[in-house]
Design a protein that fits this description.
Largest sheet: 5 strands, mixed
Shape: elongated
Oligomer: single chain
Helix content: 40-55%
Radius of gyration: 31 Å
Number of helices: 16
Structural class: alpha+beta
Bound molecules: zinc ion
């Protein structure tokens, strides 16, 4: 059947009454299309079987996808009322989302754009407020949550990031495919255990990689029966850098102000640089510091840090050699109080020995997945997120093109809407993450930061 209204507006059972451009002093001009319902009307009451009579009309006003200017529809809908039981009847109009006052296709388009564009910009095209757009987007995310599920990763990363206003977030990644799996608010054993207990397919997780957070032990034991726990080396060696910093600060406290400034400016950054990455100038600075009795202890700390990093670097495959190197390293720490933080690090390694050395047993490189995913969230947040809600940050990060495409191309959708389909809302064309700019403006209404 060739219905021009259906093909032009994707609206069923309606005829176009008239169209006009509405002009006023207070609003920008917009297209208004007025439709009349022309579908089936019932004459017999579905409740009691008595006759139904016409009972006036109601009109629904919805916003459609904008063209050269915003577009609104007004649809006149007949009402029927039962003569006996007084039941009211109204036809259901296919093609509109009356709850949201949008055409169905506008609901899809607006949501697609909201993943990428500032709410205020989307709203301007639609002649809606930024807040309205945001609320529609959040509603949509909640509804989609029930209908789209990603496959539970075999190699699951748990990391933590801090985001202004939202506090601690737990970032869950698929380390094998380097995709973002989920983001949760907060981080404690109870809520994590609950989350994983409710995860269908939790028995598919075979490795959990994370930082040194003891409560994970309970969560994994309870909720992820087939998983082993490994600590990512990045989170371990970071502690060696912190220990060098601690030595530097202790030494500076004893120095004259002049020496202090010199050391801070000259060495803080260099001390964190790996030996193999030092420039000639930095290397000579360290040599100088080594020969100066005042700063020599700092270079001992530097060497300890380097030796600690080398436990990983020199033993990419042999867990036994790594353990041996760690033992030697621990013995090499001077008894001096100055190096207390290094002894603390050694204690930490003992406390998490099984998980730290599991790094060598875990069959995939686990570090990159963390960094990429966390960077993406931080970037999204810095871009325009500082004020907006957790749901928005989560939706925009999870369903951003780069992540979603990687999920699709790796076949990681457990179930969800047929893809592609007319509701494949996440398959939008947008700029690559890297093309985004860091220059931001702030929207006082939605709290959103955008460029
Ligand atoms: Zn009736």
């Amino acid at each position: 059947m060739n219905n021009p209204i259906k093909s032009l507006f994707d609206l069923s059972d309606c005829v176009l009454s008239h169209s006009e451009v509405v002009q006023s002093d207070t609003q920008r001009p917009y297209h208004l299309h007025v439709f009349d319902y022309a579908g089936e009307i019932i004459n017999v009451c579905p409740e009691c079987g008595s006759k139904m009579y016409s009972h006036g009309k109601r009109s629904a006003t919805v916003t459609d996808v904008p063209a050269d200017m915003p577009v609104k529809w007004k649809i006149n809908i007949p009402r029927r009322r039962c003569s006996a039981c007084k039941a009211l009847w109204l036809p259901t109009i296919e093609g509109i989302d009356e709850m949201r006052s949008l055409s169905s296709r506008a609901a899809i388009n607006l949501t697609q754009r909201s993943i990428r564009d500032a709410f205020e910009n989307v709203g301007e095209d639609y002649m809606l407020s930024g807040n309205t757009v945001k609320n529609i987007f959040v509603d949509f995310l909640k509804a989609y949550e029930q209908r789209l599920r990603f496959k539970v990763p075999a190699f699951l990363g748990i990391d933590e990031i801090k985001v202004k206003k939202l506090g601690e977030l737990t970032v869950i990644t698929d380390l094998e495919h380097r995709t973002l799996f989920d983001i949760l608010q907060g981080r404690n054993q109870k809520s994590l255990t609950e989350y994983f207990m409710n995860l269908q397919g939790r028995e598919n997780v075979i490795w959990v990689c994370s930082d040194m957070y003891r409560p994970f032990e309970g969560t994994i034991g309870e909720a992820l029966p087939n998983a082993r726990w490994a600590i990512d080396h990045f989170h371990v060696v970071m502690k060696a850098n912190e220990a060098v910093d601690d030595v530097r600060r202790s030494l500076q406290d004893e120095m004259t102000k002049k020496d202090r400034i010199k050391t801070k400016r000259g060495l803080a950054y260099t001390l964190k640089t790996r030996l193999k990455d030092l420039s000639a100038e930095e290397a000579s600075k360290l040599r100088e510091a080594r020969n100066n009795p005042k700063t020599a202890p700092l270079i001992i700390a530097y060497d300890l840090k380097e030796d600690f990093f080398n436990i990983y670097d020199n033993n990419p495959t042999s867990i036994d050699n790594a353990k041996k190197d760690f033992e030697d390293w621990e013995k090499s720490i001077s008894k001096d109080d100055l190096y207390e933080k290094f002894r603390t690090l050694a204690k930490t390694v003992h406390n998490f020995e099984e998980q730290i050395f599991n790094f060598w047993n875990c069959p995939i490189a686990i570090s990159n997945g963390f960094t990429e995913c966390s960077n993406r969230i931080i970037r999204e947040n810095n871009l325009r997120g500082r004020g907006y809600s957790f749901e928005v940050l989560r939706g925009r990060t999870l369903y951003r093109k780069t992540n979603f495409e990687r999920i699709l191309s790796n076949g990681l959708v457990e179930f969800g809407p047929p893809i592609p389909s007319d509701e494949a809302v996440f398959l939008f064309e947008g700029p690559e993450d890297d093309a985004l700019d860091y220059e931001c403006d702030f929207d006082p209404d939605t709290g959103e930061i955008f460029n």
